[in-house]
Amino acid sequence: MADALFVILRKIALSLGEGVLERIGTELAEIAPILTDFEHSMKQIEGELSILKAFIDQVSIHKDGDKAFDAWLDQVRDVAHEVEDIIDEYAYLTAQNQDTSSFFKRKFHQIKNFAAWQKFPGQISQVEARIQRLTEMRNRYGISVGELDKGNKLQQHNKFSMSDFAYLTDNSEIVGNIDGITRLTQWLLEEKQDRTLIAIFGMGGLGKTTITSSVYNNKRIRRTFDCRAWVTLSQTYQAEELLREIINQLIDQRSSMASGLTTMSRMKLLEVIQIYLRDKKYIIVLDDVWDKDAWLFLNYAFVRNSCGSKVLITTRQKDVSSLAADSYVIELKTLKYAESWELFCKKAFHASTDNKCPENLISWANKIVTKCQGLPLAIVTIGSILSYHELEEQVWKFFYNQLSWHIENNPELYWISNVLNLSLNNLPSYLRSCFLYCSLYPEDYKIKRKLISKLWIAEGLVEERGDGTTMEEVAECYLMELTQRSLLQVTERNECGRARTFVMHDLVREVTSIIAKREKFGIAYGDAGTTQVLHEARRLSIQRGAKSLNSLASSRLRSFILFDTEIPSSWIYDISSSFRLLRVLCLRFASIEQMPCVVTELYNLRYLDFSHTKVKEVPASFSKLVNLQVLDLRFSYVEELPLEISMLTNLRHLHVFVVHDVQQRSLNCFGSTKFLGNICHLKNLQALYTVSANKYLVSQLGNLTLMRGLGIMKVQQSYIEELWNSLTKMPNLSRLLLFASDMDEILNLKMLRPLPNLKLLWLAGKLDGGMVPSLFSKFEKLTQLKMDWSGLKEDPISSLSHMLSLVNLCLNGAYDGEQLTFCAGWFPKLRSLQLVDMEHLNLIEIEGGTLMSLHTLELTGLRNLKAVPEGIKYIRTLDQMFLTDMSNEFIERLLGSDHHIVQHIPDIRNFGSSDTQEANNFISLEYLTKKYGTGALKYSPAE
């Protein structure tokens, strides 16, 4: 709950950041006193909400399961949402009054909305009264902080303290993780004098406690140590009680009680443990550790006595596991399907002698096991429940279809929701809303790092940290923290090892969706168990079944994300009429040819996505969207941006291009978008892809000093000096796409200053002198290089070999010679190499010891290459080899006499000259998957 207040408090601060009177003028004098009173009242409400947030932060973790407290929190949430509605309405009216199209339009808006301005005093009075009643209710029902531990945390309720013990029964029932158990046993038995700290890390429900317990209770292990203790820390613990519990397990409890432990201070208790362990070989398990702080004083207690002692930590937090040396960390993963099936059958069919699933239930049992996605806690809990259900197909089908309901309401599934909830409840306010937002995506959807970051920022969920750090970078820190907390899993990394996509475990998403819906944060419509949209919902993603949703009665929506593409454009135009206060509108892959008229009236809009649609035009009325931060028109049909785009001074990301050639084998593979306005006004722009160059535009680009990514087309040699001068004024520029105007244009890049932070360069067009420019020797940070139609006369490989950080290299028609040579030691980090359309190339020489990290090799249109390069046999890291439009002789030798060269490559695909469409489809599929995740393909129309 505190996370909602956290976001709303930030909104209040931003809304009061500059006086509205100064922004909208004083042409309607009647508004002035309303605005003055509004700002005064909002400051008072801000103070009240700040205190409420502090109170909730302090007390909420100790009130879990307290129904009175939960009901009171629901009231707080409603008040917070009322405040948010007032702030957003205020921002909406303010933006209308700032309409700069004409004095008369501005005046019209002010008069038309005068009644709306007059409602503010009454609405604020109601909110103030409700806040007062919240305080009275809190006192009336005794909702208070309670007695705090002296300088520490409160004792955790026992019902949560042994979360992973939900399926701790018999060691013979443990399935999977054999390697982990073996390693852990070896570490505990190894003859090593120094005290060893071992960590077992993974998401809740993986069986960290179970595995640790099976080893801890092993008779051989028990005989190895002089004494042992097992304590559970959980999210809250009382330090003195924790130390007393350790002493009680190490020492006879009666003697420890007699020695006055109950009254000892923390330091005295530490001293008792130190003295006792001084000359003993001990093993101590710290189960369910949530932060590093606990180790600060426990490390002091567990003496390093050179007796070969061991300390085991189980945790869901990666930073906690880092307390142990890397060589002593076990990261648990979900079970493989075969292991999941074995464990499920052991529980669900334990009454049968062979634990075998009846034939009539195999289909539904498979679906249930798949849903559990290898999480042992869920498999065992659900299997145990089903063990006393009738073995009839209809019964199991009904259970599966109602699984979402069971997780939320069935007390027998208490362990699943509560174990997973522990991770969610432990999130700080700034992370919780961000994580709830992830639940709006479909099941198994690959969440893109760049996309989710932009959505969080648009929703106001990401804080400004200053010091030159962008909000995009802060959002990326949020993502990393969520992965370290085992709430998101990284599913794909880019060539540099940076996380590209993330996924939520199905059951984590299920539990999170339930919370998001209950707290009115957001709803995934069409998801299992969700067939209606609550009036109070703030965010809505429609995953399927959109046609059954006839209207949206609520104007409270802040995000609308459409995944269901099988709906007519008329439905979209109708439904969008209720989007008054929207901040995020994502209609990617929607079947529409023009933007809904209402879009330009969404004054609070921050994020607008019409990519992969048939939209052809951006209307001039876009000038009204003064708050817009992201405009995404990739793969649309828009080829010209109106003058009015330059009025969107808050734009941070502008993506607009038409794709003509998916394989990117031609100079005009992208359409060049004309930018008609004065681009120097867009001073907040960080990414711009792609615009058509002209003399005026290239000179103005230097004003965009925050730019990090730029794509510019139709570049002429006469623009180069001015363009490069502008680029050098962008200190953070890391991605540059530069395309010459046509195949005859020759670009001279000599004598130009380097761009020190460039990581990606795509250079298309002939280069002066047919040589790699000396400028390239300064690109020390470059990780991706693509050169198209460069007209190079000499082998470029040696000129590029100094690029030690390069991970992706593509030469597309770049070289007119006959031979390329890769010498030993060159390109140590290169993972992907593409050689395309070099018609004279007949020999590729690869020495042993080069390209030692290469995973993907693509050869396309090298019609004069007859033999498979012999040196490929040295590249043992190769996973994939893609061949497109190669000569028949090359393919024959590949399959015959030269097959021994490539026999170590597991995935080789060949597309002949007659397979152009198949190659296009394959490459398009690969491209879209990398750019947008598999979810985009799953929900995209087949075209």
From TrEMBL:
Residues 557-865 form the Disease resistance R13L4/SHOC-2-like LRR domain. CDD domains: RX-CC_like. Keywords: Coiled coil, Leucine-rich repeat, Nucleotide-binding, Plant defense, Repeat. GO terms for biological process: defense response to bacterium; innate immune response-activating signaling pathway; plant-type hypersensitive response. GO terms for molecular function: ADP binding. SUPFAM superfamilies: L domain-like, P-loop containing nucleoside triphosphate hydrolases. Residues 20-105 form the Disease resistance N-terminal domain. Residues 181-352 form the NB-ARC domain. InterPro entries: Apaf_helical, Disease_R_plants, LRR_dom_sf, LRR_R13L4/SHOC2-like, NB-ARC, P-loop_NTPase, RX-like_CC, Rx_N. The keyword Nucleotide-binding applies. The keyword rRNA-binding does not apply. Transmembrane segments: none annotated. Pfam families: LRR_14, NB-ARC, Rx_N, WHD_DRP. Residues 440-510 form the Disease resistance protein winged helix domain. It comes from the Eukaryota. Belongs to the disease resistance NB-LRR family. This is AAA+ ATPase domain-containing protein. It comes from Panicum hallii var. hallii.
